[in-house]
Amino acid sequence: DWDYWNVAYTGQDNTIKKSTDGGSTFNVLYTFGTTTSDDIYWIEQSRVNKNIMYAQQVVNNRSILWRTVDRGATWQQINLPQSKRELVFSLSGTNANELWVAYPGGSNGIKIFKSVNSGMSWTNLTSSVLNGLSIKAIAHQFGTDGGVYAATYHGPVFYRNASMPDWTVVGTDLPAASYPLRTVPFYRNNKLRLAT
After folding, report:
1. Does residue 57 contact residue 68 with C-beta atoms inside 8 Å?
2. Which CB contacts under 8 angstroms, 24+ apart, belong to 68-74?
3. CA–CA gap between residue 193 and residue 187 (Å, rounded)
4. Where are the beta strands (DSSP E) in 88-156?
5. pLDDT-derived band at 173, boundaries 50, 70, 90
6. What is the pLDDT of residues 140-157, one digit of tens each?
7. What is the pLDDT of residue 89?
8. What is the rounded distance in angstroms from the CA atom of residue 155 to the CA atom of residue 176?
9. Which pTM value belongs to this model?
10. pLDDT (tens digit per residue) in 13-52
């Protein structure tokens, strides 16, 4: 939790669990449905409004995205631009209603989307530059004009912000073969960290 050093959240089966003792113990915060195999894959908390969190759950082999505005007491499913199992997402550091979603298995022309109203509508940010590539990780860079990095499977890392007409390749000396798991800006040293 961005406000409390000793509060942490994790997904287990179809539940989100919360710890208030630095991870020593976890208790169920919320249960999504009754099927334990409908796993929670990813949880992200807004830095703008700490009461807002998003959670990705896989149900019947497709991802669902949930949103809470009360720190996990209640959740509402949001609309997604596609119905696929794999997705990655990143929240804005300046707008609590803004987020990006990318689909690793997205077809050409429908790979990455942005919403500025918590998923009520989506703008397709995909261009032909991303053709044939699988976006495996995505991260918003705080302090930019909506800047976002998209890391691809065995390919380059791209960057785009709101004033750019298209995606551009960034970074050098990346391994020839990589499977991005997470991309995180390291602000102190002006670097982008890519876990693979």
Report:
1. no
2. 68/30, 71/1, 72/9, 72/16, 72/18, 72/29, 72/30, 73/30, 74/30
3. 10
4. 88-91, 99-102, 112-115, 123-124, 135-140, 148-152
5. confident
6. 998 888 999 999 998 889
7. 96
8. 7
9. 0.92
10. 999 999 999 999 999 999 999 999 999 999 999 999 999 9
Cα→Cα distances 160→31, 37, 129, Å: 36, 36, 12
Please, are residues 56 and 41 in contact by the beta-carbon 8 Å criterion? Answer: yes
Give the pLDDT of residue 194.
80
pLDDT in tens, 99-119: 999 999 999 999 999 999 999
Residue 109 gets the label, from left (phi > 0), alpha (psi -120 to 50) or beta, of left
Sort 22 into a burial class: Cβ within 10 Å, 0-12 / 13-18 / 19+.
Answer: exposed
Angstrom distance (rounded) from CA 90 to CA 141: 10
Contact 20, 64 (CB under 8 A): no
Q: Are 65 and 81 in contact (CB under 8 A)?
A: no
Question: In 3-state terms, the chain is what percent helix, strand and coil (to 5)?
Answer: 5, 40, 55
